Model the fold of this input.
Amino acid sequence: MSSAVTTKGGNSPNITRTVLICLALYGTYKAIRFLWSKDSANSLKKRPTQRLPYKNWTKREISRFDGTDPEGPILIAAGGKVFDVSAGRGFYGAGGPYGVFAGRDASRLLATQSFDEGITEEELDSPIDKLDDLSRDDEESLVSYVGLFSVKYHCVGDLVEPEQVEQ
Done:
């Protein structure tokens, strides 16, 4: 007498679950491979080799590096750090799927995994978002993005208020 529980079609629930997991993993692998190859192929195009110096940046300063200049750097601030994400121009450049994050403090957007219509003058003139109302999940999401950016892109400084910039 078999101790395995079978479904109406004769398959064990464990086999069905295993097949579903394998299909999900394969789909994830294909998606990551596609995105990675798109980003890698894009980064092979001619890019400036000179890195930006590490410094303190204001929101207004990084707004000039929003990906609209096809040869210029693209900067994103996240978690108080400023990253040069030019190597990911296909993602963060003008027309890219994450272009809305370019040239701004994207901390709240990344943490809450949300998009908006783009940066506004009001946003540029407001103080840096302290993010003190984020949920634990949102905080963990932001930490994950900062970790990803730290590994994949060059950190070019810290995001500071205008009065904290050294003249």
User: Anything to note?
Assistant: The first helix runs from residue 13 to 43. The first strand starts at residue 55 and ends at 57. The radius of gyration is 21 Å. Residues 56 and 166 are 8 Å apart (CA to CA).
